[in-house]
C-alpha cells in the first residue's frame, strides 16, 4: 500500500503521567496539554518548537490464526510507531485472511507523544501469488526494516 496523504487536526494532545514514558520517574503529578498544530511545526510549553512530521503509529492487516493485540509488530504490521510510516511510504503487508482487514490508528505529529486525529489517504493493491517468508523462523538474521518498507515521494 502507498500512503499518499496525512491531514492533521488543528490540535494535538500531550499527556504526561507519573511512572509513564521516558520522563515518568521524574514526575509527581499528571498533566494534559492541548497543543496547537501549525502548517509546519508545533510549539510545546510556549518555548519548544518542533517540526511537524505526521506519522501512523499502528497499521497492519489481520494475522493468520487467532486475533492478537496490535501492540506488538510482526509480519502483518501492528504497532511500529516509527516516523518512516508517513506520507510517501510504500508498505508491503501480507493478506492472511479474506478481505485483509487493514486497520490503522495512533496518529502522531512526529514521534513526540503528541497524539492527534487526522485523515489518511492510502492506496492499496493486492499482489496475488506471492508468499511471505515467516519472520519467526528466519534462516539468517532479520533484515533491517528499510528492506521491507520503501519510502519514496510520488
Automatic annotation (TrEMBL):
It comes from the Bacteria. Pfam families: FmdA_AmdA. GO terms for molecular function: hydrolase activity, acting on carbon-nitrogen (but not peptide) bonds, in linear amides. This is Acetamidase/Formamidase family. It comes from Cardiobacterium valvarum.
